[in-house]
Amino acid sequence: MSQKRPVESPEPLEQEQRRLNDEIRVTKRRAKGHGSFNAQFWANSQELEILRLQRTETDRKISLRNFPGTPSEWEQTEKAKDIFQMIKAQQTTIKLYQRRADELDATKGDKKNKRSFRDAFMKLFTTSKMGIGISQTGTGTRDSRQQSAFREELISLGDAKHPKYDWLWCPIISDWCEATTVQAAHLFPHMHGQEVMDSIFGKKTPPELFSARNGMLVPMAVERFFDSGKFVICPDLPDRPALAELLAWIRQDSREYRLKILDLTWDKLDHPLSPNTTETWRSRDGKKLEFRTSFRPAARYLYFHYCIQILRRAWGHNSSRGSVSVLEDEAGRPFWGTPGRYMPKNMLLALVEEVGHEYKGLLDGAGSNKSEPTLLLEVASAQIKTRPALKDVDWHPEDETDEDEDDEEDSY
């Protein structure tokens, strides 16, 4: 029997949406006058995020009102999953902003800690598509020369160029693709910046934000799903590997990986991976990625990408049982747990608490070094807010594009 929905006049919702868009613009302009990390900065940031959350809730009501089916059917749509992800990310950000304000008060008398606190989060919170929208700081526009060199390094190390045609090899779909349709994608996105990357993984020499170790060649037909919580890249091991198998995989010079579908309700499961193949995402599930050389992306960045997809998947559902229930349909639990000593356990713990304690396998192998505990969760929230799961969603208003106009592909 279909669930009944209350009949709601469309006009109040559209009026509310316009009102919130106006308030957001005013609040952003006011917030830009307080670029320093003081109490007013966090108060403004929190106020802005609350308004954005209210707008997303209004978007949810409009989308549900316009959907021809029942609420439960709407919740299974990609549009609904995107909205739920955004709502959860915004709710989390509001809590984290409050935490930042409280911590800043605690460090008022400690200049060293205050300086460290400021440096660690400057780029995370002040890029033009995050935080309060200060465009003069943060990662800024991506250097095209850096990106070109990044792409060429991936092509060279992966022997990805076809000897005869203008094609490039994609290890995810194990096939050749037109070179003009292939992007060099960052596993740890460019938008977070080198400083935040160093805060999570530790400093590397040379820096690895634009290193091939932090990238993969991804066709545009695949890229739109690459960071959408639909699939993950994980070790090519049995679902529940024995300890000896896991250790053997860790010791390999070139570790092997496979594709694993996370969202078994995905409406594209039976669609071709690309225009040039009949293989579907469903048939690709569990298959090994095929690299043409011994070069592999760094496990730490693949693991980061994995964690973000797990969180995105968990946040993409409206469930009374919380995030854990929506992950129970995954094959292969427990999760592979070898992030290495470079990812601090306290960061991963904050992430696990969002996903659910039953998934504490994410913590296996984590380093014991101390660091800012919620940084990974803050990065994940910012990434999910900035990069909707699917680029063709139409629910999100574009009224802020005058101030948030960065090219979305700079995220990679």
TrEMBL record:
The organism's taxonomy opens as:
Eukaryota, Fungi, Dikarya, Ascomycota, Pezizomycotina
* Acidic residues biased stretches: 399-412
Q: Classify the source by domain of life.
A: Eukaryota
Protein name in UniProt: HNH nuclease domain-containing protein
Looking at the record, which segments are called Disordered? 1-20, 390-412
The chain positions of domain HNH nuclease read 172-233
Q: Which Pfam family, giving just one, matches this sequence?
A: HNH_2
